[in-house]
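User: What would this chain look like folded?
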Amino acid sequence: MRNQPRIDTARFALASACWARGENPEQGEEAVIDLLTDLRHHCAAFGIDFDACDRMAGDHFSAEGGAA
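Assistant: Here's the prediction, encoded as structure tokens.
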């Protein structure tokens, strides 16, 4: 699977975010929402345009085949 390293990285990021909050690691929607919320806080703190980053990430996702 061509995108497996990226999928593994995303799983690690989700598990790490859960661990940092003292929660049980999970791979569900709530974990993704929490991670995205944390990223929004990070962007706000450092003056990064989250929406622009999200659009570019969507472009990268599409260019990489758009699926697992």
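Helices lie at 4-20, 29-46, 50-63. If you want, I can go into more detail on any region.
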